[in-house]
């Protein structure tokens, strides 16, 4: 059966290119047109269970790679209001009080430093995400394929969030030191305390920033997943074109 199918596929392709050649005469065929024809034929091949599983893992690999690239650049977090890291609520009272006495620039610098740490940490997330793309059951793979626009992202987040958090937190701590975030925060908190404006807030900046960075990465991954599902041009590999053309 498989041999017969392959023969029929090549006969069909030969016929298509014969027609195309008739349209174009001796002119060179447009590579984009050839790709379109090949993609259309490939999308008609039956999807077996193994192909669906590979396709979903490929979508996650491609999507996480793009998400990391977008968030790890300068202003990847800071300039994107959807994922920008703001000061934790525990620091709002301190921030308001210090702004009133002329420390507004330092408060702004603290928030910028938080976003810079998130951007630097995001650049090292690719390997962690790839390692976290676990084997899917056949039922999971088909449910994700036919699911909503963020089904693969939701699956990855639900199955791996805690593991990712544990592996990512040391990276965050390192990047916080790299941008002097701890020092900047301690200066402001000590000033707040010394001026009797209030007690030094009890906040775990590393935990907070770890969670916000991962949230930003998953939010961006969901956007990339939607592109792969909706936009044929975002399906940059043959496997993605084949699997998602059949949704």
Task: Characterize the structure shown.
The protein has 247 residues and is mostly helical. It has one domain. Helix content is 72%, strand content 0%. It contains eleven helices and no strands. The chain has helices spanning 2-24, 31-43, 49-72, 92-100, 104-122, 125-132, 138-145, 151-178, 181-194, 205-230, 238-244. Helix 3 packs across helix 7, helix 3 crosses helix 11 and helix 8 (151-178) packs antiparallel against helix 10 (205-230). The longest helix has 28 residues, at 151-178. It starts with a helix and ends with a helix. Mean pLDDT is 83; it is low at 1-27 and 31-43.
Show the helix and strand layout.
Elements lengths: L1 H23 L6 H13 L5 H24 L19 H9 L3 H19 L2 H8 L5 H8 L5 H28 L2 H14 L10 H26 L7 H7 L3
Helix pairs in contact: 1-2, 3-5, 3-6, 3-7, 3-10, 3-11, 5-8, 5-9, 5-10, 6-8, 8-10
């Amino acid at each position: 059966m498989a041999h017969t199918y392959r023969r029929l596929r090549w006969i069909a392709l030969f016929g298509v290119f014969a027609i195309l050649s008739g349209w174009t005469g001796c002119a060179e065929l447009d590579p984009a047109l050839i790709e379109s024809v090949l993609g259309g034929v490939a999308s008609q091949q039956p999807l077996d269970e193994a192909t669906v599983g590979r396709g979903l893992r490929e979508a996650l690999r491609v999507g996480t790679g793009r998400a990391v690239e977008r968030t790890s650049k300068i202003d990847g977090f800071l300039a994107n209001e959807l994922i920008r890291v703001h000061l934790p609520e525990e620091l709002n009272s301190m921030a308001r009080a210090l702004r009133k006495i002329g420390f507004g620039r330092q408060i702004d610098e603290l928030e910028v430093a938080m976003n810079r740490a998130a951007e630097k940490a995001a650049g090292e997330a690719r390997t962690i995400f790839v390692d976290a793309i676990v084997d899917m059951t056949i039922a999971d793979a088909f449910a994700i394929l036919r699911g909503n626009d963020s089904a693969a992202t939701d699956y990855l987040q639900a199955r791996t969030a805690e593991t990712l958090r544990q592996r990512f937190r040391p990276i965050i701590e390192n990047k916080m030191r790299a941008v002097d975030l701890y020092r900047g925060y301690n200066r402001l908190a000590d000033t707040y305390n010394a001026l009797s404006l209030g007690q030094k807030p009890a906040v775990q900046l590393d935990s907070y920033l770890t969670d916000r960075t991962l949230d930003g990465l998953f939010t961006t991954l969901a956007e990339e997943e939607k592109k792969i599902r909706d936009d044929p041009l975002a399906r940059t590999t043959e496997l993605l074109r084949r699997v998602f053309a059949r949704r």
